[in-house]
Design goal:
It is built from four helices and twelve strands; from the N terminus they run ααααββββββββββββ. By secondary structure, it is an alpha+beta fold. The strands form two sheets. Strands 1-2-5-4-3-12 form a six-stranded antiparallel barrel. The termini are far apart.
C-alpha cells in the first residue's frame, strides 16, 4: 500500500514538473505540443491524484485563513476603540473634577447618546435628580462652549449646539465684542464686530457674559476667514468651532448660571 502511494506521489510530481516546463519558454513549441497530446488523457487522473496527495500533504485554505485574519483584525480594532474611549472618558472626568474645583459654577455631567449633525442637536442622558432647565449653558471639561439646553425630557435633554440656526451668543475677540450665530451644518459665524477691530485668521473667540447666556471666557472657536466691506460698519468672521462631536462623549450643564 505504501509503495502504491509513493508511486502516485512520484507520478504526480513528475506531471507537475512537466506542466511547469510547458508553461515556460525553455522547450520548443513542437515538443510542447507533443507532450500535451500524450498527457491530455491523464489530466483527470492527475487531478484525482492531486486530491489524494493533498490529503497526505494538506495545503492551507487561503480564503479561510484570510477570513480568520480579518476577524482577528476586527476584534483588535474593537478592543483598541474601547480602550481609547475609556481613556477619553477618564481624561474628561479628570478635567471635569479639576474644572469643578476651579469653577464658581455647579456642573452636572451627562453622556451624549444621540447625535444629529444635520439638525445641530445632540441628545444627552443626565444623572438622576439633576435640576436642568431650558437655556442653561452646556460646556466640556476643557472649557469649550457646546450650546444650550433645549427640551428637557425627564433624564434626557436636548442640546442646541452653537451652530444651530436658533443659537445666538455674545462673544469677544481681539478686544472687540460681537454676536455668534449658528448657520447650521456645524457652521458658526461672528457678526456685529466693529470693522476697525483688527481681526485675522487664527484669532480665538470666547464667550462674553454681556448677553447673559454664557459665563465669561468659555472657548468657542478660531477665526478661519474674515469678510469686511468698506460700505458696512461691521465685519463678519467665519469660525472653526472647538467643540467636536468625534472627540466628546461627556458634556456638562452649568446649573447655577441661568440666563434671564
Amino acid at each position: 500500500m505504501k509503495q502504491i502511494q509513493t508511486q502516485r506521489r512520484i507520478t504526480f510530481f513528475v506531471l507537475i514538473l512537466l506542466l511547469a516546463l510547458l508553461a515556460s519558454n525553455l522547450i520548443s513549441d513542437s515538443f510542447r505540443a507533443t507532450v500535451l497530446q500524450v498527457f491530455s488523457p491523464m489530466q483527470s487522473i492527475a487531478w484525482n491524484m492531486g486530491k489524494t496527495v493533498s490529503g497526505v500533504f494538506p495545503f492551507p485554505d487561503v480564503s479561510q485563513q484570510n477570513e480568520m485574519l480579518q476577524q482577528e483584525n476586527l476584534e483588535l480594532r474593537f478592543e483598541n476603540t474601547a480602550l481609547q474611549n475609556a481613556l477619553l472618558e477618564n481624561e474628561e472626568l479628570k478635567n471635569a473634577l479639576q474644572l469643578q474645583e476651579e469653577s464658581e459654577f455647579s456642573l452636572a455631567a451627562g453622556r451624549i447618546v444621540g447625535k444629529s449633525i444635520g439638525e445641530d442637536r445632540i441628545l444627552v442622558r443626565m444623572g438622576p435628580d439633576v435640576d436642568v432647565r431650558q437655556r442653561m449653558p452646556v460646556v466640556t471639561a476643557q472649557g469649550v462652549a457646546v450650546g444650550t439646553v433645549g427640551r428637557v425630557l425627564g433624564s434626557m435633554i436636548e442640546i442646541l449646539l452653537l451652530s444651530h440656526p436658533d443659537s445666538s451668543v455674545d462673544a469677544k475677540v481681539s478686544g472687540g465684542r460681537g454676536i455668534i450665530r449658528g448657520e447650521g451644518r456645524f457652521q458658526i459665524t461672528l457678526h456685529l464686530l466693529p470693522r476697525e477691530i483688527a481681526l485675522q485668521a487664527g484669532d480665538t473667540v470666547a464667550t462674553s457674559i454681556g448677553g447673559g447666556l454664557f459665563p465669561d471666557n468659555y472657548l468657542i472657536g478660531t477665526v478661519s476667514a474674515v469678510e469686511k466691506k468698506d460700505t458696512e460698519p461691521f465685519q463678519k468672521a467665519f469660525l472653526s468651532p472647538f467643540f467636536s462631536l468625534e472627540s466628546s462623549e461627556i458634556v456638562f450643564v452649568i446649573t447655577n448660571f441661568l440666563s434671564p
